[in-house]
Amino acid sequence: MMKRLLHIFSLGLALISSCLAEQKGEFMEQTVIIFKPDAMQQGRVGAILQRFEEMHFHISGIKMVQLSEAILREHYAHLADKPFFGDIVEFMSSAPVVIMVLEGENVIEEVREMTGETDSRLAEKGTIRGDFGKDKGQNMIHASDSVVGARAEVLRFFEPAELFPLRHNLAD
Ligand code: TYD
Asked: Could you tell me which residues come within 8 angstroms of residue 138 by beta carbon, excluding any fewer than 6 positions away?
């Protein structure tokens, strides 16, 4: 119990200090992308990543990992009361995924636009889900949906040593 409280407290501290650094203009906005098991299985990682690189977003962290049910239950906690909660946790933990932190000006909103609607069948052509996704569950990628959400996701999925952020206004 004490260990969990300490963990929550240190996450909170890290969240506040990184938000302050961003406000001071030291760090660029970051977002978390997860290439879901369908993107991995269908060989779409390269095609999707190319779209982000063409937008000149900076990759500040990238790794391949098999996510545990515990971390996915935390990640999708906002959907815990939905009937598909078990399915999404099972799907996302079924195979290794590639997970990445991208940074750039307005990266969260721009990547969400590039990603398209949750339901791939309704997503516009030209968006990642519209071009490659199958349905609501198999929709290729996760992308953070807010500044606070992205911060929590960076801290949830990455150790500081795994990140190589661009720093701004520090050298000049
Ligand atoms: P959500 O956060 O609502 O969507 P998004 O990924 O667009 O931010 O949902 C998270 C994931 O849960 C979604 O990518 C796929 C899955 N999901 C379903 O399987 N069925 C559904 O009806 C919804 C809304 C989501």
From this structure: 36, 38, 91, 120
pLDDT in tens, 51-77: 999 999 999 999 999 999 999 999 999
Residue 32 domain flag: yes
Give the tens place of pLDDT for each residue, 130-160.
999 999 999 999 999 999 999 999 999 999 9
| Closest residue to atom 1 of ligand 1, CA basis | 118
* 167 falls within a domain: no
Q: Could you tell me how many residues make up the chain?
A: 172
Print the domain residue range for 45. Answer: 2-162
What is the value of pTM for the model shown?
A: 0.87
- C-beta 92 within 6 A of ligand 1: no
Pocket lining: 58 vs ligand 1, CB cutoff 6 Å: no
As for how many domains the chain has, the answer is 1
- The CATH number assigned to the domain holding 41 equals 3.30.70.141
